[in-house]
Amino acid sequence: MTETLKIILFLTLLISSISTCFAASSENLNVSIEEIIPISQIVTPYFDSLVESSETGIKEQPIISASWGPDSSRLLVEASINSQSGASLHAIYLLNADGSGIRELTSTPSNTKEKSLGLHILENPDTQETSWSPDGNRIGIFANINAVRDFYVTANPDKTLIKTAGKCNYTTVDEIKENILDIEWQTNLMWNPEGTKALIIMDKDPLNYQLYLIDRDGYVLQKLTDTSDRVETAIWSNDGKKIAYSITGPNKDEETGLWIINENRTEDNRLVDNGIVIAWSPDDSRIFYVDANSGLYSIKADGTDEVQLSTGFSRIDDVLSFSPDGKNLIFSTVNDEGVTMFLADQTGKNAKVLEEFPGYIIFKPSWSPKGDKIAHAQDDNLYTINPDGSEKSLIASAITDYEWHPSGDFISFISSDSVFVASPDGSTKIQLTEDGDDYRFLADRYLNGWSPDGSRLLVRNDFKDLSVIKFEGYEDPLSIDFLTPIEGENCELRIRCMSEPVTDALLTLDEKEIGFTSSSGFLNYSCPDAGRYVINASKTGYRSTSKVLIVEVNSSASPEKFVVPETSSDSGKEEDSRPEFQVSGFRGITAVLFLLFFIRRRNSL
To answer: What gap in Å lies between CA 388 and CA 353, rounded to an integer?
Structure first.
């Protein structure tokens, strides 16, 4: 018996070793294209009709960009022309991820050379502004007339209703242009984590910007500051309960500096008298800021334990990025002598040099979504490195951009105008598109190329040709809409896929079944008591999704945010549909080993 146990233990260790070897082998990288969807060709006929109706005589082709919805099922598309004649035309469209169901949210057909209103998608990680609210139920659009006003409008993606954010209540483009001077100068639109409210900085006098809280439709809920100076920037804490904001002025006074305030305007405390907030730590215990001398600091939310990370930190060129688990961060200094990248713990302490080199053409360091690698460009070469500084690997040369896949299983990059993917150590590369296709990612507009679920990639040829690459092995995602969710009343849930209703989708509330959708995709249910709930929708052949529902004591309910979508548990498939490293040949090796074991056992009898 003892000998048998030894053999079993030996075989187990051997199988584990072989499994690890094969799992790490990037020869098993399996990524392939299912189809390429020409978004520009879909959008252009609609925009051409806008050009004709505008009677501007514009002949240029529109510049087209797009932003993924939080559940990966929809695309927000911007088409814009800034004509050499002086007039401009802009339109915002909504499409399904497969290119179907296009419809216009808003456009500017009445623009003239003398007065042209611009409309633009928001997506800037430096300021944390995004067009989509985290729950996908509202869209923020940046609008402006050059040298006259910068402001925002909000839109309902399920309707064509728009409204100016702030104190005015204009709902059409013509009404906005006619009353443009009534609208405040605005900046820093930032959704709260629940997607139900937003911060906005605004005033008729941009030198006296104040901080406001608005609801998701743009109506003012509360004025949070009343300073004689200027609110420069503001950021929500990750739990959405506090706001860090910075006040600047011509001179230091009792109002300038870095402040923290609760959403309900209580406990408004100044931490330092000189600081521009740039980030909260993932656990909201600390705030990171830059002072007037470009020094990078972190400080506890109670104003104690200030730590200086670096001098000469630039909010434009440098990077501050937390690891996915929130335990570490990387930051950089970029100057005429080159680049230095540091690794520190989540407080900013215990910093050490991770990389140092001259030049920084495409530096752009980023964590793998798994947190096990850090990628960066050095000149035009792409590298990955472990967080401890070991195993620096050359992924590719002569790149023009790169982006991690949301799974962290591989990294995508552009080289020779083509799209490639590579294993995190660079040992295997797959070319996905032909040479000379002139593809680019959307990094120039701060837009993410990969859909959140990793099933699709946005690429462009030049600025006028936008496409979606769809990859094999992914199910299309379900999306959940909350309709009339009032505590104590009957409510409706709607389940769709690419805007089409989904019949017989299973819905659960906190893992308890509440029913199946009807032929029109609806489910009526009794709204639960006040509290926080997770609603999940699943059906065979679709990618399941979850959404958090918060029912408040005042009988109002609102969706909070998307939980990371998962493959449907009842899909009937044994493997996750995402491309991954497969253990090639493992079953055959296992069978051979067990055969050897039984031969040994038989000979011993």
So the answer is: 10
What separation in angstroms does the CA of 399 have from each of 154, 180, 408, 440, 451? Answer: 37, 44, 19, 10, 21
Supply the DSSP symbol for 304. -
Asked whether the beta carbons of 536 and 508 are under 8 A apart, the reply is yes
Whose structure tokens read 């990037």? 26
Instruction: Tally Cβ neighbours within 10 Å of residue 548.
Output: 18
- The predicted-structure confidence for 358-396, as pLDDT tens digits, reads as follows 877 677 899 999 999 999 998 889 999 999 999 999 999
pLDDT digits (tens, 9 = 90+) for 30-59: 899 999 999 999 999 999 999 999 877 788
Tokens of 517: 């959708």
Amino acid at 211: L
Cα(99)–Cα(467) distance, integer angstroms: 10
Tell me how far apart the alpha carbons of residues 279 and 320 are, in angstroms, rounded to a whole number: 8
CA distances from 493 to 55, 156, 317 (A): 44, 17, 45
Cα–Cα dist 234/356, whole Å: 32
> Cα torsion at 149, 150, 153, 157 (round to 10°)?
140
* Helix (H), strand (E), coil (C) string for 333-344: EEECCEEEEEEE
Give the DSSP per-residue string, 7-55.
HHHHHHHHHHHHHHHHHH-GGG----EEEEE-HHHHHHHHHHHHHHHHT
User: What's the angle, vertex CA 188, arms to CA 182 and CA 190, rounded to 5?
Assistant: 115
Contact of 278 with 294, CB cutoff 8 Å: no
The alpha helices in 366-472, defined as continuous H runs, are none
> The tokens 């620096």 sit on which residue?
392
Using CA atoms, how far residue 169 sits from 182, 213, 491, in Å, is 10, 16, 29
Q: Provide the β-strand partners of residue 91.
A: 79, 107
What is each CA distance from 246 to 273, 299, 375, 568, in whole angstroms? 9, 14, 31, 44
The CA distance from 519 to 508, in Å, is 18
The pTM score is 0.84
Amino acid identity at 531: G
Q: How many whole angstroms separate alpha carbon 380 and alpha carbon 365?
A: 13
107 neighbors 90 (Cβ within 8 angstroms): yes
Question: Assign residue 600 a region: left if phi > 0, alpha if psi is -120 to 50, beta otherwise?
Answer: alpha
Question: How far is residue 287's CA from residue 237's CA, in Å, rounded to a whole number?
Answer: 9
Instruction: Provide the 3-class DSSP secondary structure of residue 588.
Output: helix
Ranges in the chain, pLDDT < 70: 1-27, 85, 124-128, 361, 436, 442-447, 484-489, 552-605
> Which of 577, 512, 520, 516 has the alpha carbon at shortest distance from 543?
577
Amino acid at 592: V
DSSP 8-state symbol, 473: T
Side chain identity at residue 26, one-letter code:
S
CB atoms within 10 A of CB 416: 17
Backbone angles phi, psi at 575, to 5 degrees: -120, 150
